[in-house]
Amino acid sequence: MSNKKLFGGTKLGDIASSLKTRPEIEPVRSGMRAVLPTAELALQGRTSPGLTRETILSVDPKRCRGWKYHNRTAAWYTRERCEDLIQSIPKDGQQEPALARRLVGDSEFDYEIIYGMRRRYACEATNHKLKVRVVDIPDSQAAVLMHLENADRQDITPMERALSFQIQLEAKLFPTQDSLAQALNVSKGQVAKMLKAAQLLNHGPIASLILDRSAVPVEQAYKLIALMERPGARDVVLQAAKNLARREEEGGRDPRVVLKLLLASLDQSRKLSPMRREYNVGSAGRAILTRNAKGKVTLAFPKGLKVADRESVMQAIEQVLQDLS
């Protein structure tokens, strides 16, 4: 955990430690505004916690939904990926409360979880009540606390953080990219790099190849999106993604493999050599494929086509696509 100072003297390490070690207390009386002291420390620059009390409740996990700016992807909410909590909660209890805000006017849910969605999943799976620390804070403050809670967690991937930053900026939780970096105590350069990497998944042909976005490596994504800014490179990569999708088996590939193949497509595009091939079409016809050094492809049918040639033409085109890819 970084122990750099934030907002006039507060340290991230101290804030995170306070979150994790503060003893639980009884729920406050109705009508008392629930405020998380560490959030005030982070956003107001205070150096010592006040006497503000918190609300900690045991609630039905089914009545809780995730905060819309949560940085975990849905891929985490499976029995396999929550098995550690599913095993420990019935034995040792829930060690740390989730952080939640109360919802008003929602017939399906009473709370939204700012962090602790894996705890929510495990409690539901084991028929246990979910402990939640209920707070009354704005979205920008919730984003800071979520970042603090997850800063030391190895299972939150860099791409999940990158996508979270992207969503929070688009939603105007922070007015600028620099203000987000300052609030979360992340370098401006790192935030810029992560946001650029997240842009890769805005391209439909690429995103469709990846089922688990959390597993996309930021370094490879950043490199690929940077290369796609070169003249002509974007079209090459997107066409390679479409070609890969046609050959893709059900369930998709490892994102690292996908990005490696897409990066390789740019290397191949710079090494194109002229090509000329002939394919049989129908009983006596033929198709001629030519590709020049610039990558322009022409498929010609010197003797024309007949309706009866349809099946053989489709087979020839399929072979052409394989030869070109």
Explain this structure:
The protein is of the alpha+beta class. It folds into 3 domains: 5-155, Conserved hypothetical protein from pyrococcus furiosus pfu- 392566-001, ParB domain (Alpha-Beta Complex), CATH 3.90.1530.10; 157-271, Arc Repressor Mutant, subunit A (Orthogonal Bundle), CATH 1.10.10; 275-324, no CATH class. The protein has 13 helices and 10 strands. It has helices at 12-21, 37-44, 83-92, 117-125, 139-150, 158-170, 177-184, 188-198, 204-207, 218-227, 233-247, 255-269, 310-324; strands spanning 5-6, 10-11, 55-59, 64-66, 98-102, 111-115, 130-134, 275-281, 285-291, 297-300. The chain has a 5-stranded mixed beta sheet. A hairpin with a 5-residue loop joins β9 (285-291) and β10 (297-300). α1 packs antiparallel against α2, α6 crosses α8 and α10 packs parallel to α12 (255-269). The model is unreliable at 1-13 and 18-53 (pLDDT under 50).
